[in-house]
Amino acid sequence: MARYVKSRVVIKKAAVKALTDQTKLALELTAEQLLRVVRAASVIPRKEGTLEGEGTFVDDSEIQSGHVYIVSSTPYARRLYYHPEYNFHTEPWEDDKGNKGDGNPNARGKWYTEWLPGGSREKEIPKWFQIFCRRLL
Fold first, then answer.
1. Phi/psi at 101 (nearest 5 deg)?
2. How far is residue 4's CA from residue 14's CA, in Å, rounded to a whole number?
3. CA 135/CA 37 separation, integer angstroms
4. Residue 93: which H helix or E strand, with range?
5. Tens-digit pLDDT profile for residues 28-63
6. CB under 8 Å to 41, separation ≥6 — which residues?
7. Spatial separation of the C-alpha atoms in residues 102 and 90, rounded to whole Å
8. What count of other Cβ atoms lies within 10 Å of the Cβ of residue 112?
9. Which of 35, 58, 94, 119 is the most exposed place for a label (fewest CB within 10 A)?
10. Can you tell me the distance from the alpha carbon of 57 to that of 70, in angstroms, rounded to the nearest whole number?
11. 90-101: per-residue pLDDT in tens?
């Protein structure tokens, strides 16, 4: 014998919007956490610190569509990132012209590969996102 069930679903748009906003904030916080961890790992090549410092930042201009980016705005960032064969300075140095640089102990090209899929630290990003979501929601 079949029984019929009657139900009513009420969607509270204000609650859905609040959840969506908090999730977007968690996404931005995750990107900022990744940038902090990458800087602390000392993997970004360093001469004066511009690329590692204010030259790299989190761009949240497209957060409404669920996208955030870590942007390196220096003109040489792409060249350094995509050429891991370069001999990056890993300690302070001075050349014969008197130019000095600080170096980074783990400097290399493609410095985000550890955190990308297939990298040794790929599981950290989803974990951070989950932690931020739990805190905010």
1. -150, 155
2. 31
3. 20
4. strand 93-94
5. 999 999 999 999 999 999 888 899 999 999 999 999
6. 106, 111, 114
7. 8
8. 15
9. 94
10. 6
11. 888 888 888 888
Lowest model confidence (mean pLDDT) among 2-11, 17-26, 119-128: 2-11
Phi, psi of 85 (to 5 degrees): -75, -10
In this predicted structure, what is the pLDDT of residue 46? 87
**Torsions phi, psi for 70 (to 5 deg):** -100, 115
Looking up tokens 């919007």 gives: 17
| Three-class secondary structure of residue 104 per DSSP | coil
CB count in 10 Å sphere of residue 26 = 19
3-state secondary structure of 131: helix
Residue with tokens 């970004």: 44
Nearest to 109 by CA among 51, 64, 53, 55: 51
Cα dihedral: 103, 107, 109, 110 (round 10):
-130
Q: What span, in angstroms and rounded, lies between the C-alpha atoms of 92 and 102?
A: 4
CB 57 within 8 Å of CB 51: no
